[in-house]
Structure formats: C-alpha cells, structure tokens
Amino acid sequence: MNPGRKTLLIVFHSLTGGARQMAEAAAEGAATEAEITVRLLAAPDAGPADVLAADGYIFVTPENLAAMAGRMKDFFDRTYYPALDRINGRPYASLICAGSDGENAARQIARIATGWRLRQAADPLIVRTGAQTPEAIMAPKTIGSADLCSCREAGQALAAGIVAGIF
Hints:
- The protein has 167 residues and is an alpha/beta fold.
- It has six helices and seven strands.
- Helix 1 packs across helix 6 (145-164).
C-alpha cells in the first residue's frame, strides 16, 4: 500500500448476491476518491490485521433470521478482541440486505461498533428485497439501480470524509 494514503476496508458476506452487489457498489463509489485505497474483502478472508490497517470501515451483511449473517458474526468474533482499544474513533457505515426488516442486523453491528468505539458516519442503509417465501429468500438477488446508487454514494461519502479528515 502507498504510505500516506488512507484505507477503507469493506467487509461483506453474501449468500444470494444482494449484499455482494451492495458492497461492490460502495467500493466503486469509494474508489472515486483519489487518495484512498479500497479493500473489499469477504468476511471469511478478513482478519485482525486488515481491521487494524484500515482508517475506516463499511460492514455489509444480509439479515438472516432477524440477525446479521453468521459469517459476518464470525468476522467480528475473530477480530473484535485483537482490535479492541486499537481502532477507537475510526468511522464506519453499515449496509444491510434484508427481506422486509433489517433493523436488528443494523443494531447488532452498531453495538459491536460501539464496543470498538468506532464513530458512526451515516445511518445504516437497509435495502429491503421483499423476499418472504423460502424460494424467494434463497433465490439469487438483483439489487435495483436506485439502491445501488445509494450504496455507491455511501461509499463515496465515507471515503471523502476520511480523506478530508472529517472522520
């Protein structure tokens, strides 16, 4: 990585593709900032060193059974204590792909971020797909262009704030 550049870490999990599309859109938006390095990592591939090396974070997860996805929880379980008291004050945002709600997954991430003493840079962005039947829930998702635009804007805004020293 280039010394002096800031790094935005985007950690995601996606089973049906919706959260992945949202994470990729946020990464695209963040990449428009010339002075930031964007690291987009699947939750199983992200570890404590990645968290410690970043200047800010976007956490992207589907909501499964009224909770963040288990693989995102596993990411937080593996990284929480190694990063505790070492990333205080860094900004974060969360993006949630949900069928009809998403609020509990957002609350779970906010509680973890509070423990890490991170600064919430934006309200959680929740995209509701309307999937309610077992078939619709497990089907591949296509996130609409307006929602993807919101995800790009969230990534760009966080990246710009990090570069400008606002966060």
